[in-house]
Amino acid sequence: MEELIQFLRNTYPFNRLPLEEIKNLSKFLLKRDYQKGDIIFKEGAQPLQFLYIIHKGEVFLEKNNQLVYHLKDGDIFGYVSLLGELPPATTARVVEDRTVILELPKDIFLNLLTGYDEFARFFTKELAKRVHRVPQTKTSFQMERLIDVRVKDIKLKEPVIIASETVLQEAIKLMAEKDSTFCLVKTDSTVGIITERDIIKKVLAKDLNPQQIKAKDIATFPVIEISSSEPLFNALLTMAKHGIRKLVIKDGNTISGVLDDRTVISHESKNIIFLIKEIDKAKSAEELAYIYSIIQDSIIEGVLSGMDPEYVGKYIAELNDHFMKKAAQLTENLYGTASSLYSIMVIGSEGRREQSLKTDQDNALIYENKREDYFERFSQTYIELLLKIGFPPCPGNVMLNNPYWRKSKEEWFKEIHQWMENPKPENVLNISIFFDFRSVAGSESLVEELRDHVKKKIKASKTFLPFLASEAVRFKPPLSFFKTFLVEKSGEHKGKIDIKKYGIFPIVQGIRVLALDNEINETNTFERIRGLKSKGVFTEEFARDLEESYRFLMSLRLKSQATQIREGKTPDNYIAPYSLSKTEKGVLKDSFKKIEEFQKLLFNKYNLRYFS
């Protein structure tokens, strides 16, 4: 009993209570022991009846199997569910053996809140931080709901399913009976789809007899599928990526329904499919600029309401890709279609689908034959269009209107050779920007040829990857010997840390090196980490910890930038560590420690002692 009293006297905000009150409430505390892996409560369970205090050990609060909070000795949790009488928004998982949790009954906790103002203020402040309540505006696309909502939460359209040998006339009859605009066609090995449009274009327009045609003859195989447990956001991205209006939903191996764009639009009046349609049907830079401005507001809102940074990046990238593709179409309308193959590539953070709110445009052009006159005019107009739409210019002029970033295939091959053979600082910077390239408009095959060329050059070089890896260990995490934060000591960023330089960059650069080394084609850092885990380069635990460290650092930067924009300031990459909550400080230190561990891995793997 005395030990508990002393613990509470040293734990905020219980140390703001009178000693007699602490002694009294300690009688009601339940002390429970947990082992690593134990679940204290699950996301979506019944509203909690206890306030939880970590006496000793560590707990992860996870949402959708992703780390949200890393809690340690003295941290308190469970109060959001307790006060709101809501199901827990996270799962509490014990991550250290012999963890001891104190449980305070709800009625005792509520009595303390009503009796002591300072004690209550702590929880109201923390509650505001956790819930992230941001007023919804008319232009909101409610991005955070797309993450929280699972496909299975949507009322799905029950499909008409027929055998592949079914006569088309019978299929049409079934579709009419079920008032359906499509039907699914099953074979022994796959599933296809027939839509009203297929029947009109492939049968009626050709004056064919539906009684003499089998379903398999006009069906499109295979359909695109997704699991019912996926976030609605992933379903929307899949539909947008494949340019489809209907997505088959599976529960295990069973088809549970079909998600179509009308269903989604009725559920979310503003969504990515709607936005992409608006972008694709726009006829001028002015129309595109209006859509772009609305999207920027909604992204800021999504960030401030706690949207996962991985989804923020993918959301921005998917929409930006369509803006850029549309800009290419508008430019071609002016100058005509190019006589040779070409591709507009996005590079840097755009290529990785990891834009921050400070990101400018980084792009390049590759073309098949030497037709510099056409592509010079094309590139100038294209970049002018992007600027009118709202894309900020690149201060380093990494844009395809700069001849340096506009080359034929053979010229790019030579340039990459030159970069790799002469790893001086500007070439290393160019490699770091360029090697995350992907196509957003034009020929995919040209970009794949370029990727294959890069792979061959890397295989042939013994020194290139170690040199690139040395960049990832150049900036050490800003922690002192005693694990306190090393911040800027003077200037406009006094008391702050450059989170990009010391946190995000080492992970991005190091993961890029390992991805190139292991021929992983993904450009996104999160997906590269998962690819490295699947190839056995990382253990499951290390991959998860590194991924969550990266997620946390990206989230800190995005929230800081969103706040700066809302306050009318220019966003930057600095954060003030001592303004963070106790929990956030702890997670930030853990993230920097994980980067130290990652840098040691790179140092040993690539023998970087020779580069020191």
Provide structural commentary:
The protein contains 24 helices and 20 strands. It folds into four domains: about 1-130, Jelly Rolls; about 145-265, CBS-domain (Roll), CATH 3.10.580; about 280-415 and about 435-450, Beta Polymerase, domain 2 (2-Layer Sandwich); about 460-610, Four Helix Bundle (Hemerythrin (Met), subunit A) (Up-down Bundle), CATH 1.20.120. Helix 1 (about 1-10) packs across helix 2 (about 20-25), helix 10 (about 230-240) packs parallel to helix 14 (about 310-335) and helix 17 packs across helix 18. It is of the alpha+beta class and about 600 residues long. Helices cover about 50% and strands about 15% of the residues. Strands 1-8-3-6 form a four-stranded antiparallel beta sheet. The chain has a four-stranded antiparallel beta sheet with strand order 2-7-4-5. Strands 17-16-15-18 form a four-stranded mixed beta sheet, with helices on both faces. It is globular, with a radius of gyration of 28 Å. Mean pLDDT is about 90; it is low at about 130-145. Strand 9, helix 7 (about 170-175) and strand 10 (about 180-185) form a beta-alpha-beta unit.
